[in-house]
Design goal:
The protein is of the alpha/beta class. Helices cover 38% and strands 15% of the residues. The protein has 15 helices and 15 strands. The protein starts with a helix and ends with a helix.
């Protein structure tokens, strides 16, 4: 079914324009074209860094953008949108149910709140003030997994209990344990791996949640953790998937997703009322997800590597410069190029700043020892050679 057909089944008849007394339709005059970035004095840049929130995430793909435009023309009930789009998302992710959230952090919070409240509106209204409510108030995670994003769980009023070994995990489980939490990108840093974590959780009948916010590609991660047995899975919609930056997905067990929605908009008197996701974003996220799953990821990966090669060849053509593809990082696992230089031959203190302040402005990541790291997955096709030439020019200008 095409995008417009899906939207049509959920909406009322469109208003193409105002109808005058004669019965004819009066079309609105086209709006004047405005350069919004210039109007507000904002710097735009070529993104050779990555899909980071501070850099406004990723650029939406065409399907997501068109879904926003189409959905913006009609009214419909938000709960019905979440019901029907959530069911489609769940079918793609091997999950019982799913919902679109206001980013992955929101997915963590709403999933946690749903576990605490269950299908009890009174309990939902008591979060995050859990003392004296009878609501379980502890979450267990590995010390290596206790990063800043775990604050989403603490926002719900729970206490984080950290462990290192499986024996410590067993000893930490009490009648106050509400959930066991796992962060996928930190898996290699912890002693307890996915399978053992799940085995212990199921033994004690404790719900599990995994954060895999930025762990795409590969696309198989979208259903891998459901197939493993995690009860809730959280992912960002605005990174490699290229949906709206302000979206995420919470997917998992049907009863837990229903409980999470009890803590979410459009309902009030709950912790998630401010985490609104409009219908436009819900549809856009779905179409971005659909396109991502249907894409040829091997072909796309090869394209990213070819782009890296173009930039590496340009940089390394300068005497004293080394350009090397570095091992995949724990998070944002995409081809990444490190560019360093012999400081006795090239007097350049901060290449990243020079690229940012030049024309066109280019954002890269800082690397070890003053070097830079470059990625290509956020570049438009015509920007690859621009980035390559600018880096080469800056290095050449700084030669002694």
């Amino acid at each position: 079914m095409k995008r417009r057909e899906i939207l049509k089944t959920l909406t009322m008849f469109p208003l193409a324009g105002a109808i005058g007394n004669s019965g004819s339709i009066v079309q609105a005059a086209p709006l004047p074209k405005r350069d919004i970035f210039s109007e507000f004095g904002l710097r735009t840049f070529i993104n050779a860094s990555g899909y980071f929130t501070s850099l406004s995430g990723s650029l939406m793909n065409d399907e997501a953008f068109e879904a926003i435009r189409d959905a913006s023309k009609h009214f419909c009930r938000l709960e019905e949108v979440q019901d029907k789009v959530g069911a489609r998302i769940a079918s793609l992710l091997h999950a019982e149910s799913a919902m679109v959230t206001a980013g992955a952090f929101s997915a963590l919070m709403l999933g946690m709140a749903g576990i605490l409240s269950g299908n009890d509106a009174k309990k939902a209204s008591q979060i995050p003030f859990l003392e004296g409510t009878g609501i379980k108030s502890e979450v267990i995670l590995q010390k290596a997994h206790n990063d800043g994003y775990a604050h989403a769980l603490k926002n719900c009023g729970v206490k984080l209990i950290t462990v290192t070994t499986a024996k410590e995990l067993e000893n930490a489980i009490t009648d106050q344990t509400a959930m066991m939490y796992f962060i996928n990108y930190q898996a290699s840093l912890g002693e307890i791996q996915h399978a053992e974590w799940l085995k212990i959780a199921k033994k004690h009948k404790i719900p599990t949640m995994i954060d895999m916010a930025a762990d795409l590609p590969p696309k198989e991660n979208l259903w891998k953790f459901h197939d493993m047995g995690f009860d809730l899975v959280c992912v960002s919609g605005g990174k490699f998937m290229r949906g709206p930056q302000s979206t995420g997905i919470l997917s998992g067990k049907k009863d837990l997703i229903a409980a999470a929605r009890l803590n979410a908009p459009p309902r009030g008197n709950n912790i998630g009322r401010g985490m609104k996701v409009n219908k436009e974003e819900v549809f856009a996220l779905y179409f971005a997800l659909e396109r991502f799953i249907n894409s040829d990821q091997d072909q796309e990966w090869k394209m990213l590597e070819d782009r890296i090669t173009v930039i590496a060849n340009a940089a390394s053509s300068v005497k004293g410069v080394k350009a090397e593809v570095i091992p995949l990082l724990l998070i944002n696992r995409i081809p990444t190029l490190n560019i360093s230089w012999d400081k006795s031959l090239i007097k350049l203190d901060n290449l990243a700043t020079n690229l940012r302040e030049g024309n066109p402005s280019i954002e890269v990541m800082g690397g070890p020892g003053g070097s830079i790291n470059v990625t290509t997955h956020m570049l438009k096709a015509d920007e690859v050679k621009i980035v390559a030439q600018r880096i080469k020019d800056e290095l050449t200008k700084a030669m002694v």
